[in-house]
Amino acid sequence: MADFLLRSLPGFSNISVQRLKSAKGTSRAVCCVLAGLFAASAMLAQDQDPSPATRSIPTMVGQLLDHDFVNFYVFGNAIYDSRLPILSSSGQTLGNGSWGYQVGGGVTLAHQFRDGDISLSYRGDYRDYTSTRFGGGTDQNLSLLYNKRLSRHWTVSLPVSAGVLLYGAGGYIVSPSAGSAVAPNPLSPQTRYVQTGVNFTYQQTRRLSYVFSGNFFLNDYNYVGAIGSKGVSGAASALYRITGKTTVGATYSHSYYHYAQGAGTTSVDGESLSLTHDFPDHWQASLSAGINRTYTQGVVSTPVSVLLGQQTVQGFFVGPYERTTYVPSFQGSLTRFFRHSSASLTGGQGVIPGNGTFLTSRDQFLTGLYSLSMRRSNIGLATSYFHLTSIANVVTSSYTTESFNASYGYVLRRHLSANVSYSFLHYGNLFSLGSINDNVITLGLSLSTQSLPLGLF
């Protein structure tokens, strides 16, 4: 399963839908669309950059196939974790690997109305391990998007996403709503998140449009001392289509974060400019740059290590903080669409609410993706790098997450498919806690109404 929850893609309307329709068959079209949307999602998580035509993945699939799309599926997997990403408070790993099982199911659907559309994607499972040191639990992933044209000039979209991550994930969960990212924490057995919003688009002319949006998010972690966060954000953008292939935009956004346990609050004001261009031979590039002003204040408890003689003692540093920081924001994305595949590279820097231990943080990221769909099978590859540096207080530590994911799915016969996947996850040092690596392998079967194999995307 992918380490990201895909978000609506601003600017996707600039990509020629007709050339994607040339993909033959449901799985090929799905592959092409998902990879294109997935490619830009990590970049857009950092700074809001809405556009006149926001679309969810299932909705785009329905449009490309010129009919409604529904796929129900169930699956069962054998799973092996070489080292589950759980640490004790002293930084020791609680286990060295275990076999387990994973059973679940989901649905992907899209329906078009005369003046709008609705799309839903849900996947849930229960996972358990043979090792008594690790309990079972659920992974949940929900994404819902409703689009409606209110009048000749006005449209509205209502995105909702929520989920539960058991034992974290290799990358960030990118929201379809709030310009916010859910960062997993190696200390937390579960990461829970809810994000929702509303986006209004006013199309003044064929070239000029405006987007107004408001969002809410909640991130929660369940380990001792975890600092969850919740907040709201709003943004206003002006977009101008210079030519049929080039669009420029300007965005102002304001976000407010509130942290649990009285740890403090953060206000973020951001301004950015963006450029999107379609090149010949199905290349698309997007660039944006701007500045974020963050104002943070509160009281925080930070785990520290103190050397007393020959003994290291674990403790906490408690103190107030108040800080104003300016963080440059920049993102770049390059995507290439082939007949049956697509590839993309995205990187940049922005501000996110943190990961339950760090509070407001500078986030530097790089992601690469590749998707290939054949007649009866699909292949997905993804790699990511994320580096957090706290900007909320005097803490100067940083934290890095890296991941690599690969999957292969094959239709054995009608409705029945086999799948195999591999993930490598690296959690960097978190204060005095040591870094850990995790290798995850899954093997399984799935049943689906559309005869589609499970894949990374």
Report what the structure shows.
With 457 residues, the chain is mainly beta. The protein has a single domain (12-293, 325-448), classed as Porin (Beta Barrel), CATH 2.40.160. The chain is 7% helix and 60% strand. The protein has helices spanning 17-21, 26-44, 57-64, and strands spanning 69-81, 98-112, 116-129, 137-149, 154-166, 173-174, 181-182, 190-203, 208-221, 229-241, 246-259, 264-279, 283-308, 311-337, 341-352, 361-373, 377-390, 398-413, 416-427, 436-448. Mean pLDDT is 78; it is low at 1-66 and 170-179.
Summarize the SSE layout with pairings.
Blueprint: H1 17-21, H2 26-44, H3 57-64, E1 69-81, E2 98-112, E3 116-129, E4 137-149, E5 154-166, E6 173-174, E7 181-182, E8 190-203, E9 208-221, E10 229-241, E11 246-259, E12 264-279, E13 283-308, E14 311-337, E15 341-352, E16 361-373, E17 377-390, E18 398-413, E19 416-427, E20 436-448
Antiparallel strand pairs: 1-2, 1-20, 2-3, 3-4, 4-5, 5-8, 6-7, 8-9, 9-10, 10-11, 11-12, 12-13, 13-14, 14-15, 15-16, 16-17, 17-18, 18-19, 19-20
Helix pairs in contact: 2-3
Q: Give the integer mean of the pLDDT values.
A: 78
**Element-level helix/strand string:** HHHEEEEEEEEEEEEEEEEEEEE
Low-confidence stretches: 1-66, 170-179
Number of helices: 3
- Share of helical residues: under 10%
How many domains? The number is 1
User: Measured on Cα atoms, how large is the radius of gyration?
Assistant: 22 Å
Task: Write the CATH architecture name.
Answer: Beta Barrel
Number of separate strands: 20
CATH topology: Porin
Distance between the termini: 7 Å
Give a short account of the largest sheet.
18 strands, antiparallel, barrel
Please indicate the percent range of residues in DSSP E strands (runs of 2 or more): over 45%
Shape: globular
- Please give the CATH class: Mainly Beta
